[in-house]
Amino acid sequence: MKDPGDSEIGMIAETEHLALRQLTLEDAPFVIELLNQPSFLKYIGDKEVRNVADAHRYLRTGPLASYEKNGYGLFWVGEKATGKPVGICGLIKRESLEDADIGFAFLPEHCRKGYASESGRAVLEHSKRVMGLQRVVAIVQPENQASIGVLEKLGFRYEKMIDVEEKPRTLQLFGIEL
User: Fold this and answer.
1) Is the CATH code 3.30.70.270 the one for domain 5-177?
2) pTM of the model
3) Ordered strands of the 167-177 beta sheet
């Protein structure tokens, strides 16, 4: 895995198949498509992003604000070979969790290709090496077996059930020491 550092603005990492970079306002059409996928709505929630203005609001108050405040956030994930966006993967700082929370979502046609685990490994490596984080957690709905499988593949271990204020249901908490 290559870490381009400052050589490309906003670039976080490159893996065998993927490039990870900070999201920008120009990613609005992709964000609209991703955030309205049935799997995103079911497992992550409705962010009420239906048009470009909504996407800009989401980006400004979510990922872009997180980069400024925390030094990390959700990152655009794209295929290196084509430059096409395939999903997002990165860290979220939730008020109700002590540690940064890894999150990921991919367009359906790019699921089951190993992209979630490949980008997840890149985010964890970046978190340890660049951000100096020692621990990362993940929250997931118990019925989301695909995401649980990715987390376990990345080395996360189930810790306990928790209630998270931002999510109105009981979720599984997984953790990993970096």
Assistant:
1) no
2) 0.92
3) 11-14, 18-22, 74-79, 85-92, 100-106, 135-140, 167-177, 157-164
Domain boundaries, the chain: 5-177
DSSP strands (E only) in 64-166: 74-79, 85-92, 100-106, 135-140, 157-164
The continuous run of DSSP H or E covering 32 comes out as: helix 28-35
- Amino acid 8: pLDDT: 53
Res 96: pLDDT: 87
DSSP 142: T
CA count, 13 A, side-chain hemisphere, 81: 2
Half-sphere exposure of 119 (CA within 13 A, CB side): 32
For 169, the 3-state DSSP assignment is: strand
* Residues 43 and 141: beta-carbon distance below 8 Å: yes
Rounded average pLDDT per 10-residue block, the chain, 178 residues: 48 97 98 97 95 98 97 97 97 94 98 97 97 97 96 98 80 97
